[in-house]
Amino acid sequence: xxxxxxxxxxxxxxxxxxxxxxxxxxxxxxxxxxxxxxxxxxxxxxxxxxxxxxxxxxxxxxxxxxxxxxxxxxxxxxxxxxxxxxxxxxxxxxxxxxxxxxxxxxxxxxxx
Length: 112
Prior knowledge:
- 49% of the residues lie in helices and 16% in strands.
- The radius of gyration is 15 Å and the shape is globular.
- It is α+β, with helices and mostly antiparallel strands and 112 residues long.
- Helix 2 (42-51) links the parallel strand 1 (33-37) and strand 2.
- The chain has helices at residues 6-25, 42-51, 67-73, 94-111; strands spanning 33-37, 57-60, 79-82, 85-89.
- The longest helix is centred in the first third of the chain and has 20 residues, at 6-25.
- A 4-stranded mixed beta sheet has the order 2-1-3-4, with helices on one face.
Protein backbone atom coordinates (compact mmCIF):
# COMPACT_ATOMS: atom_id res chain seq x y z
CA UNK A 1 0.00 0.00 0.00
CA UNK A 2 1.38 3.39 -0.95
CA UNK A 3 0.89 6.46 1.17
CA UNK A 4 0.62 8.75 -1.86
CA UNK A 5 -2.49 9.61 -3.77
CA UNK A 6 -2.22 8.97 -7.49
CA UNK A 7 -2.74 12.56 -8.63
CA UNK A 8 -0.09 13.93 -6.27
CA UNK A 9 2.42 11.36 -7.43
CA UNK A 10 1.66 12.10 -11.09
CA UNK A 11 2.14 15.83 -10.42
CA UNK A 12 5.50 15.19 -8.75
CA UNK A 13 6.62 12.91 -11.61
CA UNK A 14 5.60 15.49 -14.22
CA UNK A 15 7.32 18.32 -12.36
CA UNK A 16 10.49 16.34 -11.77
CA UNK A 17 10.77 15.31 -15.43
CA UNK A 18 10.11 18.90 -16.54
CA UNK A 19 12.78 20.11 -14.11
CA UNK A 20 15.29 17.58 -15.45
CA UNK A 21 14.58 18.65 -19.03
CA UNK A 22 14.96 22.34 -18.17
CA UNK A 23 18.11 21.84 -16.10
CA UNK A 24 19.65 19.62 -18.77
CA UNK A 25 18.95 22.24 -21.42
CA UNK A 26 20.55 24.95 -19.28
CA UNK A 27 23.56 22.74 -18.45
CA UNK A 28 22.82 23.19 -14.73
CA UNK A 29 23.79 20.33 -12.41
CA UNK A 30 20.87 17.97 -11.84
CA UNK A 31 19.45 17.79 -8.31
CA UNK A 32 20.48 14.85 -6.15
CA UNK A 33 17.85 13.27 -3.91
CA UNK A 34 19.49 11.19 -1.16
CA UNK A 35 17.60 8.60 0.86
CA UNK A 36 19.05 7.49 4.21
CA UNK A 37 17.82 4.01 5.04
CA UNK A 38 18.46 0.72 6.86
CA UNK A 39 16.98 -2.77 6.98
CA UNK A 40 14.33 -3.50 8.01
CA UNK A 41 12.37 -0.35 7.23
CA UNK A 42 8.89 -0.69 5.72
CA UNK A 43 8.59 3.09 5.29
CA UNK A 44 11.90 3.09 3.42
CA UNK A 45 10.67 0.28 1.15
CA UNK A 46 7.52 2.27 0.42
CA UNK A 47 9.51 5.43 -0.27
CA UNK A 48 11.93 3.56 -2.57
CA UNK A 49 9.04 2.16 -4.58
CA UNK A 50 7.37 5.54 -4.98
CA UNK A 51 10.59 7.39 -5.78
CA UNK A 52 12.14 4.76 -8.07
CA UNK A 53 11.78 7.00 -11.14
CA UNK A 54 13.84 9.69 -9.37
CA UNK A 55 16.45 7.44 -7.80
CA UNK A 56 19.77 9.21 -7.62
CA UNK A 57 21.46 8.13 -4.43
CA UNK A 58 20.75 5.86 -1.50
CA UNK A 59 22.84 5.64 1.69
CA UNK A 60 22.59 2.54 3.87
CA UNK A 61 23.28 4.02 7.30
CA UNK A 62 24.19 0.61 8.76
CA UNK A 63 27.41 0.36 6.74
CA UNK A 64 30.55 1.18 8.76
CA UNK A 65 31.51 4.08 6.47
CA UNK A 66 28.14 5.71 7.19
CA UNK A 67 28.28 5.55 11.00
CA UNK A 68 27.91 9.33 11.37
CA UNK A 69 24.62 9.15 9.46
CA UNK A 70 23.54 6.17 11.57
CA UNK A 71 24.17 8.15 14.76
CA UNK A 72 22.16 11.04 13.35
CA UNK A 73 19.22 9.22 11.74
CA UNK A 74 18.91 5.74 13.32
CA UNK A 75 15.46 6.52 14.74
CA UNK A 76 14.20 8.75 11.92
CA UNK A 77 14.50 6.83 8.67
CA UNK A 78 13.65 7.28 5.94
CA UNK A 79 15.34 10.68 5.66
CA UNK A 80 15.74 12.61 2.42
CA UNK A 81 18.31 15.21 1.41
CA UNK A 82 18.05 17.23 -1.77
CA UNK A 83 21.40 18.47 -3.06
CA UNK A 84 23.00 17.64 0.28
CA UNK A 85 20.45 19.56 2.37
CA UNK A 86 17.82 18.04 4.66
CA UNK A 87 14.45 17.89 2.91
CA UNK A 88 12.10 15.60 4.86
CA UNK A 89 11.84 12.47 6.98
CA UNK A 90 9.53 9.53 7.72
CA UNK A 91 7.14 9.96 4.78
CA UNK A 92 7.52 11.49 1.35
CA UNK A 93 5.83 14.88 1.31
CA UNK A 94 5.07 15.32 -2.38
CA UNK A 95 4.07 18.97 -2.06
CA UNK A 96 7.33 19.81 -0.24
CA UNK A 97 9.33 17.95 -2.90
CA UNK A 98 7.37 19.77 -5.60
CA UNK A 99 8.08 23.19 -4.02
CA UNK A 100 11.80 22.46 -3.72
CA UNK A 101 11.99 21.22 -7.32
CA UNK A 102 10.22 24.37 -8.51
CA UNK A 103 12.68 26.48 -6.52
CA UNK A 104 15.60 24.66 -8.17
CA UNK A 105 14.02 25.14 -11.57
CA UNK A 106 13.60 28.88 -10.97
CA UNK A 107 17.19 29.19 -9.75
CA UNK A 108 18.38 27.32 -12.86
CA UNK A 109 16.33 29.56 -15.14
CA UNK A 110 17.55 32.69 -13.39
CA UNK A 111 21.20 31.63 -13.54
CA UNK A 112 21.29 30.98 -17.29
